[in-house]
Design a protein that fits this description.
Blueprint (H helix, E strand, L loop, with lengths): L1 E2 L3 E5 L3 E6 L4 E6 H7 L8 H12 L3 E2 L23 E5 H4 L2 H8 L9 E6 L4 H12 L6 E9 L2 E7 L5 E7 L14 H11 L4 E4 L4 E3 L10 E2 L4 H5 L2 H7 L57
Bound molecules: iron/sulfur cluster (SF4).
Length: 298
């Protein structure tokens, strides 16, 4: 018996979880069973055999020779600080000529794959003009105009490299629910880890202050009076970039940490980027099953 080819096992403090990357499913299992599944040869106790039967019936396990089993290690997916991929800019900063000059001096922008400009109502044309200026830098990837139409509800219009509108997406920050778990295939899994940790992002607010995300208000990385390359080589940026859920209080014990995209800006101590998440309804150290997290999202 072995794990199905699209299934990986990750361990938490009290439980393990099976991520079925092909079918967008997460199944929590007992920690001991998770440890057994991580071994090349599977020896199961009687209670674990019942679990194995359930998992086989639901396609997480396949009944084949144990010798075919290859233990999966996810850590190789995230060995280095990922390159900068997303820049978001408050329109106020975007309109200042100084900011455009700052961007033009910044060769690091060439690695960007997503540029987001955040607008207020009625300023979409100015936002589009700014994107046209940035487009002259020939940044590959996508562009986006993000509007806060009603408080707490975001509407984004995505453009391709020719600034042709591609699609609209909406989102609103909410308490963690089962929609906060994303996995599709190994490539998306790897990307999800990067995006869920919010590394590779930079945000420039209206005053020209640089943060690691548009919702980050406390952990300042620098200002537009510094060169972008200096900000990216600073200790503060390295610390923010390495701030994965593996290091954060509570999340580091959670078997769901690689599929959870609960934003790191929701944290109990705003001054400590490794502090426990706020608004998380899951306690990875509790014995209780906490099935509410897996209920159908409203
Ligand atoms: S935010 Fe909550 S569910 Fe997500 S990884 Fe952290 S502890 Fe787990």
């Amino acid at each position: 018996m072995r794990l199905a080819s699209s299934v990986v096992v990750e361990h938490g403090y009290k439980r393990s979880a099976l991520y079925d990357l092909a079918n967008n499913r997460v199944q929590r299992i007992p920690l001991e069973l998770g440890a057994a599944l991580a071994q090349p040869h599977l020896y199961l106790t009687k209670p674990q055999e019942k679990w194995a039967f359930y998992l086989e019936e639901n396609g997480f396990l396949i009944n084949e020779q144990a010798s075919l089993w290859r233990p999966y290690r996810s850590d190789f997916l995230f060995p280095r600080i990922p390159k900068l991929h997303t820049l978001s800019v408050d329109l106020h900063a975007a309109l200042s000529g100084e900011f455009v000059g700052w961007l033009l001096r910044s060769t690091n922008l060439l690695s960007m794959t997503h540029i987001v400009v955040m607008t207020e109502d009625g300023r979409q044309i100015e936002a589009y003009e700014f994107l046209k200026n940035i487009n002259k830098l020939r940044i590959g990837g996508t562009y986006e105009i993000l509007e806060e139409r009603v408080p707490g509800a975001l509407v984004g219009t995505l453009f391709d490299g020719n600034l042709t509108p591609r699609l609209q997406r909406t989102g609103s920050p909410s308490q963690l629910n089962n929609r906060d778990f994303i996995c599709a295939d190994t490539q998306v899994y790897s990307l999800t880890r990067q995006y869920s940790e919010l590394v590779g992002n930079l945000h420039c607010d209206a005053e020209g202050c640089i943060f690691s995300h548009k919702d980050e208000k406390t952990y300042l990385l620098g200002t537009t009076s510094s060169q972008l390359s200096d900000i990216l080589s600073s200790e503060r940026y390295r610390r923010a970039s390495k701030n994965t859920k593996d290091l954060r209080d509570q999340c580091k014990y959670c078997e769901l940490r690689y599929v959870c995209i609960h934003p790191f800006t929701y944290r109990l101590d705003p001054h400590n980027i490794q502090s426990s998440p706020s608004l998380c309804v899951y306690d990875p150290c509790a014995e209780a099953p906490q099935n509410q997290l897996f209920a159908e999202a409203p």
